[in-house]
């Protein structure tokens, strides 16, 4: 669940921090007080596109930080899959904006916005006007159905996807094999040439590295040889070389070498130096001999390197790639040379894979159709709870070309008035009805939902009175198992709050600021009275608010 929200330097908010609780968290306030900023800020921390114009003071950093508690094994497993390790069973998501550059972090570790979204989806769903509109996208209906079925369909769907992947590969190979004889002969000639080219090169394992190293050494050998030769002459050449100087010094010092202990030690050091020089002479001469090579040998190495690099340019970056390319071409040539046999075997494999895949699609479709009946029955009951008195809600299935999701193309159908036939949801529902339908679906899906937090923005669009009361009851029902954070302007919904927050706007030194605070019981009643009565909050309105709060509390205790 979402435990804490921290916002700094965004829009009308200079700095605000909110601690959310379990159950139903309601946010209310006058129009223009900044309610939308809260949702926009949360979206920002969840990885949505950064609206840089929201930054209040461009000279300072803007920050949004969310702290989520890990509530269940599903979340722990999902985080493990994403390689995220909770700290004290919490995960912190944040977005910092400075100089029109946004930095996303998870537990203080910098991540991409995409990674932030992936982790956020483990914890939270946000439903606003845009999400309500997703009900008008027929493709989303299958997603909602499969979400409802959850583990009941997961294994069979995974099996279906695997079978489809096998079928799709064979189907692609079959299409690629549909070439005429002339094209096939041209392809075979090319394959034979490429096979011959690779086989003729006869490249050995790791030969490319060995030849490159030999070429590098030979290319630099002349320069190295010159340096070795000059060094050797400096140490051992004619005239006043180092070796000559040391030899002369030893000859001169020999007669006095036993004069005393110090002279003997110096003489020993002179002889040690001569031994070192003799070893150095051997090393220099040996190394110089190893650097000698013929122009013919260098040409052979250079030519071999060109052959290997040419093959790499055509068939892959490594010797293993080249050998794999040879195997692939040999196999393909064999298929073309025995084309009739290959084609017949491929057709048999295709038909077998297609049947297996379609059979599994049938299995999944059967589960979906059975599950659709259960889903639409439960949604219908929820819609009745939400004041759709004569509603009919169903799901129509069409069969389309198979994909990894099967061949089902289901669509929600609804009738909201007596005597009207079922029609696609896209043709019937108004904005307010879409909000309630989404709430009804969410109340049913919440039974299998593993996210800990739902945020409802504009869930009260187009509703009032008795319908608003029923919406509040449904939200209260969902909040028994899932944390809900909802922005509303309706007192019927606000009265049901377990935690009621007031968003208000003030002016300080000609600067407009928004703030958010948790209301106590009496403060919540006063806010309900404002929502009921507008500017004039009379004693009667206040008493009405008190009664509304009392009735809501009684309902929550049921």
Q: Note poorly predicted spans.
A: none
**Outline type:** flat
Number of strands: 15
Name the average pLDDT.
Answer: 86
Percent range for β-strand residues: 15-25%
| Terminal-residue CA separation | 24 Å
Using only CA atoms, what is the Rg? 40 Å
Q: Helical region count?
A: 19
What helical percentage do the residues reach? Answer: 55-70%
Alpha-beta classification: alpha/beta
**Strand order, largest beta sheet:** 2-1-4-5-6-7
- Main β sheet profile: 6 strands, antiparallel
3D architecture notes:
By secondary structure, the protein is α/β, with parallel strands linked by helices. The protein is about 60% helix and about 20% strand. The protein has a 6-stranded antiparallel beta sheet with strand order 2-1-4-5-6-7, covered by helices on one side. Helix 12 packs across helix 13. The two termini are about 25 Å apart. The model has no long low-confidence stretch (mean pLDDT about 85).
Features:
558 residues; alpha/beta; 18% strand; flat
What does this entry show, briefly?
The chain is built from 19 helices and 15 strands.
Describe the SSE topology.
Layout: E1 2-10, E2 13-19, E3 24-28, H1 35-45, E4 62-69, H2 73-81, E5 90-98, E6 101-106, E7 109-111, H3 113-123, E8 124-127, H4 129-133, H5 138-149, H6 151-176, H7 181-201, H8 207-236, H9 242-253, H10 261-290, H11 295-315, H12 319-337, H13 339-385, E9 392-403, E10 406-415, E11 423-424, H14 425-428, H15 431-445, E12 453-457, H16 465-478, E13 483-487, H17 491-494, E14 499-508, E15 511-518, H18 521-533, H19 539-557
Parallel strand pairs: 3-13, 3-14, 8-12, 12-13
Antiparallel strand pairs: 1-2, 1-4, 4-5, 5-6, 6-7, 9-10, 10-11, 14-15
